Amino acid sequence: MQRFQEKVVVITGSGRGIGQAMAKMFAKEGAKVTVNDIDTGPAEETVQAIKADGGTAIACVADVTKADEAQRIMDMTVGEFGKLDVLVNNAGLIRDNLIHKMTDKQWDIVIDINLRGAFNCTRAAAKYMRKPNHNGRVIYVSSVSGLMGNVGQINYSAAKAGLIGMTKTVAKEWARYGITVNAVAYGLVDTRLTGEKETSEEVMGEKVGIPKKIRDQFLAQMGGAMLTPEQAAAPVLFLASEDAVGITGNTINVSRGLYI
Ligand SMILES: NC(=O)c1ccc[n+]([C@@H]2O[C@H](COP(=O)([O-])OP(=O)(O)OC[C@H]3O[C@@H](n4cnc5c(N)ncnc54)[C@H](O)[C@@H]3O)[C@@H](O)[C@H]2O)c1
């Protein structure tokens, strides 16, 4: 028996990076997965890769910052697979700047994707999850930036700390349905968001990445290497599993020492 046999899992922002690793790993363990992303190509390629590996998945291209699109993700999932067991709110973005230079646009996009997106998706999932003995899982993807603060990330640290409050509230509201709700707070994970800023790519119109000097300091605290997307994803599968039935309202620090 596979760990997620017959389970239906929605992962937002899973066309790339950590979310993509989660999607592949859930599918490998028997789950039916909805791969949501704002970008069509990565979402469809992820679904193709899962199917090629014998798994079951559908792509749902939608922007989680829009309430109606978030609802469409959940409706499409239940339309296709008949139910919704696990929601992983993973879609996220960084737009770093020091407070005195941060623009309204940088503040808004980070709050919108990381915080409002998770709210939209959780509210949209309520219709399918608030049921007696549902026994489902909601998992929020936070960051050590939300636990310890981080220079240049007032928008991101506020959004990721906000998710920790959201985690505790939903854990309390949905406990009666047997649903557990937790967050993971990542350190540095090797994705397009964490390259060296000096040479990194543009994501949604702006360069992302971390200045080399700071990145090297962080890496030294993490034993010299970032986590792989698979290493980051594994604790999320644990939280979604039967083994984690006693854990709710928690934030699991998955940073290999970046925050202690
Ligand atoms: N990489 C890290 O070191 C790190 C550290 C801490 C937390 N995180 C968090 O992990 C999560 C995944 O990040 P990642 O590093 O894999 O980044 P990534 O950029 O590789 O993947 C994020 C995905 O989210 C999608 N996305 C962005 N906006 C969206 C929207 N409005 N609707 C739907 N999809 C959208 C993107 O298209 C992308 O495919 C994010 O919440 C991020 O903040 C990452």
Structure description:
The protein is α/β, with parallel strands linked by helices. The chain has helices spanning 17-28, 40-52, 67-81, 104-129, 144-148, 154-174, 212-221, 229-240; strands at 8-11, 32-37, 56-61, 86-89, 137-143, 180-186, 202-203, 206-207, 251-254. It has a single domain (8-254), classed as NAD(P)-binding Rossmann-like Domain (Rossmann fold), CATH 3.40.50. The chain has eight helices and nine strands. The strands form two sheets. It has a seven-stranded parallel sheet, sandwiched between helices. It has a two-stranded antiparallel sheet with strand order 7-8. It is globular. The protein starts with 7 loop residues before the first strand and ends in a 6-residue tail after the last strand.
- Overall residue-averaged pLDDT value: 97
Content-based structural category = alpha/beta
Distance between the first and last residues' Cα: 36 Å
Report the CATH superfamily: NAD(P)-binding Rossmann-like Domain
Number of helical regions: 8
What CATH architecture do you see?
Answer: 3-Layer(aba) Sandwich
The main β sheet shows up as: 7 strands, parallel
**Can you tell me the CATH topology?**
Rossmann fold
Order of helices and strands: EHEHEHEHEHHEEEHHE
Write down the domain tally: 1
Ligand roster: nicotinamide-adenine-dinucleotide
Please give the share of residues in helix: 40-55%
Name the strands of the widest sheet in spatial order: 3-2-1-4-5-6-9
| Low-pLDDT regions | none
Overall geometry: globular
